[in-house]
Every structure is written in C-alpha cells, then in structure tokens.
Amino acid sequence: MLRQVMISVAVAGMSGLALAENPVLVQAPVEKVFVPAGFDDNDKVEVIVHGHFNSSCYKMGPVSATVNETSKKVTLNAQAFYYAGATCIQMVTPFIKSVELDRHLTSGSYTIEVANRSVEVSQLRVAKATRPDADDYLYAAVNSVSVESGVDGSREIVLKGQHPYLLDGCVKFEDVKTYVGADKTVVVQPVTKIVYGDECRGAVNNRFEYRARFGGDLTQGEYLLHVRALDGNAINQFLKLD
Predict the structure, then answer these.
(1) Which of 82, 187, 196, 197 makes an SS bond possible with 179, Cβ 3.0 to 4.6 Å?
(2) In a domain, 73, yes or no
C-alpha cells in the first residue's frame, strides 16, 4: 500500500513537472525597437527588439520579420514562452533580441511595425552600396564589449577579441567610429587594416583589448550597443547608463 502511495505521489510530481516544461507561445511585451544606422543593400540587415518581462515565467521566444518591398514595410512578430504551470517569481527582467531580415533589402526607407503592439519605431534606412564587398570596412574580430567611465566623466568603449592570423602581415586597429542615433542606438564600427614589416612587432598571439572614447554624447538612459564584427554578426548589448 505504501509503495502504491509513493508511486502515485511520484506520478503527480512528474505531471506537474511536465506542465511546467511545456510552455505556450504568447506575444512578447516589446516596448522599443532599436534600428542601427549604416546598412546598405549589400548588408545583412538586422533590428533589435527590447522590452521587460514581469515574472520568471516568461522566456524570450522566436522573433520573425516579414518584408513588403512594394510598401517598404517591415513587420516584426516577437513571441515569448510562458510556463503556465511553473512557480513564478515576480521580477522585472529586461530582454533584447536581434532580428535578422531573411534577405538583402533594396535601398530606400522602410517603416517598421510590431505585430499586435503599438510601438514607436524609427525608420530603417538602407543605402545604395558603393562597393561589392560585404562591408565597407575590414572590421575587427570583436567577441566582447563593455563600457567604462573615465575619471573625467567621459565614456570609453572597451573591445576585446583576437585578430586573424595572416601568412604575411598582421591586422591593426585604424579607427573606431561611433554614432549615437536618435533612438539611442549606438553603432560602433571597429575599423582595422593590414600592415607589414616592423608594424607587426608585438603581435604574438593576436589577442587585443582596444579602448576608444565615444564620438557622441551619452546621457542617462537606456541604449542599444551595436558593434560590427569581422564575421558579419554584430554584437548587440543592452546598456543602461545612470
């Protein structure tokens, strides 16, 4: 009899666990869409959705985009997983999610809307490419980024990664371009160049930590840090400055 009761309790526990592990898809509470500048019709275009979950029962789900080239409109559908049977902790958790458009866009201005949400979004502007390369610059192979405050109150961006190995020559930083958009999207372009001879001295393992001051004014508030990288995948990081 005791064995039968234990089995019943175990089955009930497994049933509750199964309920908690089978989430349903709901609309994600998107509050803002960050639109990085500097894309052209030869780029892989992406935008970033941002919002807050109000409990631990929500996890970010799939986000898709449909493009209507005729009307120049991009519609985003952002979803979240809701674990209805779980024990939830009431907590406000921010989320960001990059949305890659599934094809290269023709040049022009695009209106962006979020399905089932009223969100004010800046227009996406796609320029005409001036060269056949995937990017206008040779970007650094950045794999992590952070922001630090200087003693004078200035903001400094810290880029870390590892330059690729070359059979002849090496990669060095040339410039770090930064742009602060009206929607508080900070676009960072870490531009590098290939050098030869004595300029390659010290490039033992090609690892780098590069610091650069922001070229724009950063006040208090929430920002999206969008850093272009060598592999074509940008690093997107939510940033809140006090």
Answers:
(1) 187
(2) yes
Give the pTM.
0.75
Kindly state the helix (H) or strand (E) to which residue 19 belongs, with its residue range: helix 2-20
| Residues spanned by the domain of 153 | 138-241
Residue 100 in domain = yes
For 10-25, how does the pLDDT look when each residue is reduced to its tens digit (9 = 90+)?
334 433 444 445 789 9
User: 173 and 102 in one domain?
Assistant: no
- Out of 126, 146, 167, a domain closes at 126
User: What is the residue type of 126?
Assistant: V
SS (H, E, C) 111-139: EEEECCCCCCCCCEEEECCCCCCCCCCEE
Segment holding 48, helix H or strand E? strand 46-55
User: Does 187 map to a domain?
Assistant: yes
CA distance 198 to 195: 9
Neighbours of 59 (CB within 10 A): 14
| 120 and 150 housed in the same domain | no
What residues contact 142, with CB distance under 8 A and at least 6 apart? 159, 160, 161, 190, 227, 229, 230, 235
The Cβ-side half-sphere exposure at 199, using a 13 Å CA radius, reads 11
Q: What is the pLDDT of residues 121-180, one digit of tens each?
A: 888 999 888 776 666 788 999 999 988 877 777 778 899 999 988 888 889 999 998 888
Total domain count, the chain: 2
